[in-house]
Amino acid sequence: MESGKRCKNFSEREKMLLIEVAKEFVAIIDNKKTDGTTVEAKKQAWMALTNKYNALSETGIRTEKQLHALYDNLKKKARKNLSNDKSEMYKTGGGTFCPKTTNHLPSILPNHCLIILTRQHHIIT
Question: What parts of the sequence cross the membrane (predicted)?
């Protein structure tokens, strides 16, 4: 890819593929540690994730940087939707509201967020 040129946007299918492939590497790529061995493990995991994604993808080759950015954006969006859902639940007094969280939320957010989600929304994952 040449510098300054944009690739086409990720389709929903590509996003779901990334989430499925990332499940295998989530323990490594979401690790909060920043020591040398962990950073190296994260680099190796992102390279392996990118290779696996590109092998399974039917729409073209994506770079490690593109996949990393998409993964981070999906996590941000999931956290924001979770926060908005929590806020809406309190606004309605626990009554009915339309949650913005999606079915692939559990695979994006860390486990401690899922425990909070399960307790607050009584969702079984």
Answer: none
Predicted model pTM:
0.74
pLDDT band at 6 (very low <50, low <70, confident <90, very high): confident
The overall longest dimension of the chain from CA atoms, in Å, is 52
Domain ranges of the chain: 12-121
- Own/partner pairs for 78-86, CB < 8 Å, 24+ apart? 78/102, 78/105, 78/108, 78/109, 79/109, 79/113, 81/105, 82/109, 82/113, 82/117, 85/121, 86/120
**Under 8 Å between Cβ of 84 and 115:** no
Q: Write out pLDDT tens, residues 87-96.
A: 777 776 766 7
Separation CA 72–CA 25 (nearest Å) = 14
The residues, any chain, with a CB within 8 Å of residue 73's CB and separated by 6 or more, are none
**Which amino acid appears at position 92 of this protein?**
T
The Cα 8–Cα 56 span in angstroms is 18
Residue 114: closest CA among 72, 32, 104, 16? 104
